[in-house]
Amino acid sequence: MRIDAHQHFWVYSPEEFDWIGENERVLKRDYLPPALQSELNGQGIDGTVVVQARQSTVETQWLLSLAHEHPLIKGVVGWVDLMSPTLEEQLQRWQSASALKGFRHVIQDESDPNFMLQASFIKGLTLLHQFDYAYDLLIVASQLPQARQLLDKLPQHRIVIDHIAKPDIANGDGFAKWKEHMQSIAEKQNVYCKISGMVTEADHQKWQEEDFIPFMDVVFSAFGPERVMFGSDWPVCQLAATYPEVIQIVERYVARMYPEFSQHIFGLNAERFYRL
Q1: 44: three-class secondary structure by DSSP
Q2: Of 3.20.20.140, 3.40.1190.20, 3.40.50.2300, 3.30.200.20, which CATH number belongs to 3-274?
């Protein structure tokens, strides 16, 4: 299977999606499976991993209902309060939901830089591992030092870094530190990385394909082509690029640098990581 390992669905409302900015009008509408299906067909993508866009268990249940109705969804990354005293009971109830493959929290928006290092948060991640769920680590580049500390405590967990940890592609600021931290994190063999979300970290109007090459060089060299997976971040990617443009950035790079691993990067790695 060719897999898009990171995309979102939503029924838009300003209250529930207040993270969508005033000028991000292209995102202020509903995005549901039929709208994505034509994009997938055009690029030969067989299925996707849909990732939460709201921080509520209602979101998790809604995504699971979509997965039940739409075969294109091969896996769901939902949300649950990892610090809830009833976490174990909630995870137990979800054991029958075969489409549920993992969870995510929007750590990038937490004001406390040490949020992810709280004992209760780490305890929650440990429970996820016990229930055999993966975890998507959504952070920005400045949070990479804390992420390394967190990962030191979770040597067996299946964890993937979303959006290459959101470096400043538009200006290149902090590239050397980002590279150093990513190389350090990649030493953890249980950690994968998604080549996703790059176009929205670049100049939305003026990006060139060459802008992404130094960042992809770092990720592929550090993690290796068997721990990297493609994700479009659709529909958020539409702030800066079309679906075909997003996939072609990675396809052309892989064809040039890692042609023998194309099936891994566009499917097999996601299948293995999420157990699709």
Answers
A1: coil
A2: 3.20.20.140
